[in-house]
Amino acid sequence: MRKIYALTLVLACLFSKASFSQGPKPLFSRADTLRGTLNEFRSSYDINYYHLNIKLDIENKFISGSNLFKFKAVNDINRLQFDLFDNLKVERVVYHGKELPFNREFNAVFIDFPNTIKKGSTDEFTVFYSGKTIIAKRAPWDGGFSYTKDKQGKPWVAVSCQGFGASSWWPTKDHQSDEVDSMMISVSVPKGLMNVSNGRLLSTENTDPNYTRYNWFVSYPINNYNVSLNIADYVHFDDSYAGENGNLTLDYYVLKENLEKAKKQFNANVKPMFKVFENWFGPYPFYRDGFKLIETPYLGMEHQSAVAYGNKYQNGYLGRDLSGTGLGLGWDYIIIHESGHEWFGNNITAKDIADMWIHEGFTMYSEALFVEGREGKNAGARYIAGVRKNIRNDEPIIGPYGVNQEGSGDMYPKGANLIHMTRTLIDDDQKWRDILRGLNKEFGLKTSTTEDIVGYISRKSGKEFTKIYDQYLNYKNIPKLEFKTQGKQTQYRWLADAKNFNMPLRIKSGEKYTWIYPTKEWKKITLKQGFKPDLENFYIELKELKSE
Questions:
Q1: 485 by DSSP, 3-state: which?
Q2: What distance in Å separates the CA atoms of residue 340 and residue 346, rounded to the nearest whole number?
Q3: Is the pLDDT of residue 525 over 80?
Q4: Burial degree of 260 (CB within 10 A; 0-12, 13-18, 19+)
């Protein structure tokens, strides 16, 4: 979740996890490459299981503990890389009861094994670490811990790290392409406080006279930035939803002073959200782990099965409508948007964050489907057209690969409009629903690429979308339709960056719609009642030329 470009400074940050300057493109460093590239020391092993076992000293903002790595060797291994920010100290790495030698290069840590770990075998090691936590200055748009207090003066702590890196607070293979298959998250917190993490709470333990450990188990694959902790004197209430795969547990953790507001707001939004999203996207992907909303001191994040909520129990985005249509004021933006990520972002995950449009474009589009479910198809189309006012067309949506860098924040509103155009071009809502559900089935619980997603849409729709997505994702400009009319005849063509760009376009003549098939060469059509492109459903530029 995160960059929109007008309104207020806060809104300006919504749709970007990394702001872009208007100056030269950034130069990437060795540290960027170590973080963003699957080198031989990362690609050689596949993570199967983590047990993150930590203690948080809230008063001193100090973290300590360990993480167990269980993995399968993809190739023969003598050395591998894991990741941990260098503000945190690696105390030791233990392998079969003995300490391993290791060395650091920026935030990458390399360990050497005494013997070759053979391809296909499974093995494990444990990293012990400690250090001062990084404090977020403006969560969730920059990463780190948020330390604050509730109205009773009790600690209220949460972490967010999307884009910034999970390795900012725990040792991990910090690359989006490799999701751990399952995970135990054990967090020890001062007595009188509760920790809520992803998955199911298995047990609590009194680890010493002053701390309680909460053990949460995640039974599905999970990407690194989704792993979370949330610490407060929470009050818990629950509900259930009769969904496509049976009874889904709904668990809510909020500050005591907000209990009644939470009951009202969550009840009004959560079940309607599931009704719409399960219909369009398929079953909620994480039934075994359930669904949680957790009140946090920052606005929100899509933490898997443990969605962070900080919209202050109001509709819209902090009371505002991002579309400017009024259609965004009847529902809680953070509940709907962040929950939409359970399908796009958490179930379907991009291999490289350069392809984060897969997460953010589809999820912003899910908002329009929610509006459609409330107020009809035309209302959903108006909503998605409304968010165009936030598009800057400043940089390509797809970022550079292999250096842990996202593309433009246009991935949200421009990506959503691209997906809405895809539906319009397919022109068959049952087929479109089948495609959205099929994407979640085909690419769920694993990582994917732009080519995977666009290829699937093309195959299942029977229409070629590669050139269309190329233009909108890889170039900052949108296609321009040049046209000139003389009498009842109109000539038209595309001006676009993508090679052989040939997107069909729906136009209105009188009261009837028809399709034209522009290319980069001039074509012509004869119409009796005018030539009006469908600008509500197509995000394009028009340029009318004078007839000769």
A1: strand
A2: 9
A3: yes
A4: exposed
DSSP string, 8-43: -HHHHHHT-SS---SSSPPPP-HHHHHHH---HHHH
CB of 82 closer than 8 Å to CB of 173: yes
Condensed to tens digits (0 to 9), the pLDDT of residues 446-485 reads 999 999 999 999 999 999 999 999 999 999 999 999 999 9
What CA–CA distance (Å, rounded) separates 501 from 470? 9
Q: How far apart are CA 238 and CA 263, in angstroms?
A: 9
Residue 464's CB: how many other CB atoms inside 10 A?
A: 12
Sign of CA dihedral 322, 323, 329, 335: negative
Q: What are phi and psi of 249, to 5 degrees?
A: -75, 140
For residues 527 and 540, what is the distance between their CA atoms, to the nearest angstrom?
A: 21
Q: Are 56 and 63 in contact (CB under 8 A)?
A: yes
Q: How far is residue 32 CA from its own chain's centroid?
A: 21
Q: How many residues does the chain have?
A: 548
Distance CA 53, CA 204 (A): 13
Scan for tokens 């207020």, then name that residue: 8
Rg of the Cα trace of the chain? 25
The stretch 313-333 carries a mean pLDDT of 98
Q: How far apart are CA 94 and CA 279, in angstroms?
A: 48
Check residue 119 and give its pLDDT: 98
Residues 6+ apart with CB under 8 A from 32: 403, 404, 405
Q: Find, among 130, 126, 127, the residue nearest to 64 by Cα.
A: 130
Report the C-alpha gap between 343 and 370 in whole angstroms: 14
Q: Where are the beta strands (DSSP E) in 434-521?
A: 446-448, 480-486, 489-495, 505-509, 512-516
Q: Whole-angstrom Cα distance, residue 215 to residue 196?
A: 9
C-alpha torsion angle, residues 515, 464, 468, 26 (rounded to 10): 170
For residue 110 the two structure tokens come to 């390399």
In this prediction, residues 47-62 reach a mean pLDDT of 98
Using DSSP, how many helices (H) and how many strands (E) does the chain show? 11, 29
- Output the pLDDT for position 25: 54
What b/e readout covers 122-156, taking b as 16+ CB neighbours within 10 angstroms? Answer: ebebbbbbbbebbebeebbbbbbbbbeebeeeebb
Are 156 and 297 in contact, with CB atoms under 8 Å apart? yes
- CB-based contacts of 343: which residues, under 8 Å, 6+ apart? 277, 281, 282, 284, 285, 362, 363, 366, 440
Closest alpha carbon to 415 in 455, 368, 459, 462: 368
